[in-house]
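Changelog note: in this version the structure field was regenerated for every chain. One regenerated record is shown below for reference.
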Amino acid sequence: MRKQKKSSTEEEPQGRFHSELFDWGEALLISLAAVILIFVFGVRIIGVEGNSMVPTLQDGNQLLVSNLFYTPEKGDIVILTKDSFLTSPIVKRVIATEGDTVDIDFETGEVFVNGQLLEEPYIAEPTTTQLDVTFPQTVPEGCIFVMGDNRNHSTDSRYAQLGMVDTRYVIGKVLLRIFPFHELGTVS
């Protein structure tokens, strides 16, 4: 007996279905790999715990953070860790970088970097709380000096246990607030 050959029109729908299914699966795997690489090497989502950055950030805000090709600069809001201080990540503002001299007048609440008064429209109130670090302080090489925007309710570089922060402890710069959704956007 001779087998009858199927015409090419009979084989085509099944072959096309398998091809499309393979294409979709391949696209899905590539997309998943890209998302994983972005979140491992490029960006992270980190939540704010506490009130040290009020009014800029609130407890419970969710932030998109990146460390890709990042070097801390004055004014940046960063996420950092320092196990000798706290095991969970913390959020602070960079006030000074290596070589800068920080001085704080706790009577007037003014902060100076390299003799220049900082314009700080983002703070909750003037800096009147002195912790256990004496001023002026010069930031060592490879370090940053950080403070919370809620100055009188923030444990930051004015506290010796945190002190100057080695830049290797910086997880990244805050790019966006992603939650709550009605506050979605950049933070400064």
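Spot check on this record: Helices lie at 8-42. The mean pLDDT is 88.
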